[in-house]
Write a structure and sequence with these properties.
This protein is about 40% helix and about 20% strand. By secondary structure, it is α+β, with helices and mostly antiparallel strands. This is Peptidyl-prolyl cis-trans isomerase. Belongs to the FKBP-type PPIase family.
């Protein structure tokens, strides 16, 4: 039988679970969960802190700097990976590179109208990271997407205006034409180079 048999103990345990999930979502190297528990108990019981405010300030600053340095190092790695991928990809037959750095290859030409920046379009698309991980796909959802041409990432805005209805292109989008230093959600990290298959179904307006 669980030692958390009452609704009060179960709810208390649940609060701990939620706090643990938050910590696990943004941890730092060396995080001491037992120290976290001690700090929680100290605050809850209104007991004197075992660590002075000045020590806490210094510790928080030091950890923040370490985390920023780790992020910067990871960013360098991701940027270098993307640049290497694009450099090799540009050598392949059929891959074209625009002045902005966008790369594309034409899978199907299309014969209809080309949209303008203020047009609305209907598309099917399939998006992956350069390692092949799928992060979004209207094909998998079975539902095309409708949006304004100037309401998406720069790489898409540029490519769509060169496409004609019925065209299908594969886009290789460098980070500065995608989601840049912010990334997008958990699936697309900062500075990610992205690959999209984009099919322009209709120019709506």
């Amino acid at each position: 039988m669980s030692k958390y048999s009452s609704v009060e103990s179960q709810a208390s345990y649940g609060i701990g679970l939620q706090m643990g999930e938050q910590l696990a979502g943004n941890p730092f190297e060396g995080l001491d969960i037992s120290a976290v528990q001690d700090g929680l108990a100290t605050a809850f019981n209104k007991a004197p802190s075992a660590v002075s405010n000045e020590e806490l300030r210094i510790a928080f600053n030091a950890i923040h700097q370490k985390m920023q340095a780790a992020k910067a190092e990871q960013a360098k790695h991701v940027i270098a990976e993307g640049e290497s991928f694009l450099a090799e990809n540009a050598k392949r037959d059929g891959v074209q590179v625009t002045e902005s750095g966008l790369q594309y290859e034409i899978l199907a030409e299309g014969e209809g109208t080309s949209p303008e920046a203020d047009s609305n379009v209907r598309t099917h698309y399939h998006g992956t990271l350069i390692d092949g991980t799928v992060f979004d796909s209207s094909y998998e959802r079975g539902q095309p997407a409708e949006f304004p041409v100037n309401g998406v990432i720069k790489g898409w805005t540029e490519a769509l205006q060169m496409m004609k209805e019925g065209a299908k292109w594969r886009l290789y989008v460098p980070h500065h034409l995608a989601y840049g230093e912010q990334g997008a959600g958990a699936a697309i990290g900062p500075y990610s180079t992205l690959v999209f298959d984009v099919e322009l179904l209709d120019v709506l307006s």
